[in-house]
Amino acid sequence: MRRTGYRRGVTSTTRHPLDPDPVRATKASAVLGLGLLSVVTGPFLGGVIPATIALLMAKESHRELVAADGFLLGAKRLRTGVRLAWTGIVLAVAMLVVLAIIGLLTYARQRGTDFDPTVN
């Protein structure tokens, strides 16, 4: 925790002896794990579920990190987890678009043409 020194604007990084030790935020680690899972399962359209859970947990974890005033560690893990969650959602949407295009092309190929044969 930062404490102000004797001079105005000067801060020191010394901690008070009664201050608790900083600990890792477990929700930030969970967000990172769920974000990684969403990237891995994103191309299979299953990445949306862990990504959504990760984004919801990220809001809670961010509030806790801010309220802890430096005694909870994990802001970098939280940011990385959120980025991975959004990447998983983008991968799932991209796969959905690719599957829709493949489906339309397959449907068009099976339908064939309905034109009458022309006789010259």
UniProtKB/TrEMBL annotation:
Region Disordered: start-end pairs: 1-20
Entry keyword set: Membrane, Transmembrane, Transmembrane helix
Taxonomic superkingdom: Bacteria
Residue spans crossing the bilayer: 30-56, 84-108
Organism taxonomic ancestry: Bacteria, Bacillati, Actinomycetota, Actinomycetes, Micromonosporales
Record's protein name: DUF4190 domain-containing protein
